[in-house]
Amino acid sequence: MAEPHQSRVYSDLAYLYDSVFGRAFVDHEQQVIDSLTFRPGQQVLEVGVGTGISLGAYPPYVRIIGIDPSDDMLAHAVAKIQGNGVGHIELLKGDAQELEFSDNSFDWVTTFHVMTVVAQPRRMMDEMVRVCKPGGHIVLVSHFASRNPFLYFMGTMINPVTKLLGWTTRLRAADVLDGQRITVERHEPLSRLSVHYAIVARKDD
Predict the structure, then answer these.
(1) Is the CB of residue 127 less than 8 Å from the CB of residue 45?
(2) How many whole angstroms separate alpha carbon 116 and alpha carbon 169?
């Protein structure tokens, strides 16, 4: 069985990602980014940038570093920013669970539809909080398991299938949020019927 980020979706099928998965995600990502209160000169880290479908939504007056472990996904992201002549974005290979940045480095740390993909989501969240500046914000969009016991059970039934595609349906939001040095300011579904949630948290001073 494929473990997260070893699925072909993130490697040799990367060229299909935008058309198959990207269409379902891009509006949500742009909607969330548009709602954020960036200030000129702020530093943003996007963890798991993938093919870069979110990059065009950021304002040009912030500095963005996007990381991803997949060479194939990054190649598509690089092609996007080269084609648009975007100079405020830097793309690097990196592991969400071992961020190669100093503590308190970024004003914003964002991630979209990645938390259920990595093998150690709690460690990923720990790392995102670590590199965020005190008073900065962590922005997370992801599918999370329902708190309803019956719906959670139903999710576990399809988990073997979704793991073949590269993600788990068993992760609860509390699994990554509880015990962090953050204050959750927003935690809401992205639409009435959505199973995806937007979470915005401020790192405590």
Answers:
(1) no
(2) 7
